[in-house]
Specification:
438 residues, single chain
Length: 438
């Protein structure tokens, strides 16, 4: 049986310590120099939501996803829509990995066009998944260990750089948290909606609820602590990076701005190490995301949620949904040519935060609105915490850029129309979306 620290380590691996690196530049630009605030504000929403996930995992230990928590805790039709929003995330994750992996490796080889790198990364992911080769837990642990070495080296070198340039007064400053010349609440709110991407993956802890010793306690604490660690560690990285490079308008490439900071404090070696690790991490995440999305589409085709003839094919030799893998690989490559890194990230947040809102509301409904036999209701834990979690998550979701809300809204309306038709105007139970094999 897994203990608390096993769960925490699993959650940190799922989120990855490098997550703040991918949002640093644009969060800094969008917030007008207050990126550290965006990480910490998003952490508040995620800690509250993590509390709700932990409580729902104790109530439904076999569930492990926003889809089933909303479906069982609120309403099956709302659960289907939560699952439909999650499906969007599954489809966009490989696209995001292709875009950011290509941007990272292009910093090492700028003479090679983006289209070549995106074709290479999407092709490599597709080839490896068609061959049935996936990243193992051992490989992920090695990658995370190497990443922690690089990030800890950055922390040490950044502190040394700041002390040499500005002394102790420069290291301990409120400037990254509040600069009266540039602070703007609207910009900060919009940037927080983008920077919340840092925390995606924390909810994977709840998928292990059946294998955990004392899940009622450990899943809740692990989920909350993973969010807190991500926020504090990520906040430290961003805080130091802001001090090292205070003028956010001078980055050569805003999407990969953190890499410029690493070169300033650690020279070419740290810059190259960060680039290589980011490429490997994105290929690994893309591999997992692509096969997860392919199997999810297969399950939906098998259960006739989507057209069975198209999506339910399995390769007889390798038992893999090869058509779906090809489809997602092509979508990832083509999408990378037309979609920006920022828009792709915000579409990811669109689906994720709809699910987070649903989990918080389901928690409030289950523990405070409904009668619970054998226990008394507690306003703080049963109503205030999930209520604030839903409010914070809704605020972050509402702050997403208009293009992301339009794209996500179209996807959501397609799901709503599909569910209405299949359930005869919501009179019968909706089809179940099986996330267990993804």
């Amino acid at each position: 049986m897994l203990g608390l620290w096993d769960l925490i380590l699993y959650g940190i691996v799922a989120v990855t310590p490098s997550a703040p690196v991918t949002v640093f530049g644009l969060a800094l630009l969008m917030s007008k120099g207050h990126a550290v605030d965006t990480i910490l504000l998003a952490m508040v929403a995620m800690v509250l939501t993590g509390f709700s996930y932990g409580r729902m995992a104790a109530l439904y230990p076999a569930a492990g996803s926003a889809y089933t928590y909303v479906g069982r805790g609120l309403n099956p039709h709302l659960g289907f829509l939560a699952g439909w929003a999650m499906l969007l995330d599954y489809l966009v994750i490989p696209l995001f990995c292709v875009i950011y992996g290509s941007l990272s490796i292009q910093r090492l080889f700028p003479q090679i066009p983006f289209v070549i790198w995106s074709a290479f990364i999407a092709g490599a992911m597709t080839y490896l998944n068609l061959r049935g080769i996936r990243s193992t837990a051992r490989a992920n642990q090695v990658l995370i260990s190497l990443m922690m070495v690089v990030l800890l080296a950055f922390i040490f070198l950044a502190i040394r750089f700041i002390l040499r340039q500005h002394g102790w007064a420069g290291l301990f400053t409120l400037q990254p948290f509040f600069n009266p010349r540039t602070f703007h609440f609207g910009s900060l709110a919009t940037a927080t909606s983008f920077a919340a991407l840092t925390y995606l993956g924390f909810d994977s802890v709840t998928t292990l609820a059946e294998d955990v010793h004392n899940p009622r306690r450990n899943v809740l604490w692990a989920t909350v602590l993973v969010c807190a660690f991500t926020g504090i560690f990520g906040g430290l990285l961003v805080y130091l990076a802001q001090i090292v490079w205070p003028d956010y308008s001078t980055f050569s490439n805003i999407e990969t701005a953190f890499m410029d900071v690493t070169r300033r404090v650690g020279g070419p070696l740290l810059f190259q190490a960060m680039a290589v690790l980011l490429v490997i991490a994105n290929v690994g995440s893309g591999l997992t995301g692509q096969v997860g999305a392919a199997r999810l589409l297969f399950g939906m085709g098998r259960d006739n949620v989507l057209p069975r003839r198209i999506f339910s094919y399995l390769d007889p030799k390798r038992n893999t949904p090869t058509r779906n893998i090809w489809l997602i690989g092509i979508v990832a490559f083509v999408g990378a040519q037309f979609m920006s890194y920022e828009l792709t990230a915000e579409i990811l947040n669109f689906g994720a935060f709809l699910g987070f809102i649903g989990v918080n509301v389901a928690t409030l409904w289950q523990f405070y609105v409904l009668d619970q036999t054998g226990r008394s209701k507690k306003f703080l834990a049963d109503a205030l915490v999930p209520g604030l979690g839903a409010l914070f998550c809704f605020t972050i979701w509402w702050g997403l850029a208009a293009p992301a809300k339009i794209a996500g809204g179209i996807w959501f309306m397609v799901g709503l129309a599909h569910s209405a038709i299949r359930t005869r105007g919501f009179r019968t139970r909706p089809a179940m979306i099986d996330f267990s094999d993804s």
